[in-house]
Write a structure and sequence with these properties.
By secondary structure, the chain is mainly alpha-helical. Helix 1 packs antiparallel against helix 2, helix 2 runs parallel beside helix 4 and helix 3 packs across helix 4. It is flat, with a radius of gyration of 16 Å. The N and C termini lie close together (8 Å). The mean pLDDT is 87.
Length: 116
Amino acid sequence: MATEADGLPVHLLFAAVTFAAAWLIRRGHFLMTGRIGLGLGDVKMLAAAACWISPLLLPVLLFIASASALLFVGGQVLATGPAAVQARVAFGPFIAIGLGCSWGLEQFAGLNMGLL
């Protein structure tokens, strides 16, 4: 966790790497499609989330965020019809869900990966 002084530089470095990777994905998607698919707020939120959890839990965060977003869009399609697929959906709330779940796993389920 980032509250420990000796692990802080590692968490800050991981946050910077996470920001750079997410920004490159955002930029690559824009270059390929001409549309912005991942907002800059989502990129910054992922970098901030990287400070809160173990670096090894970032894939868990991304999986939970993506799965919950897909479930939300699927529910929207079932509720309102196929036109809901074209609607824009903010990814930030799903990042927050993934962060909360992965942080909870790390803190309360004993999944501290022992990296720091």
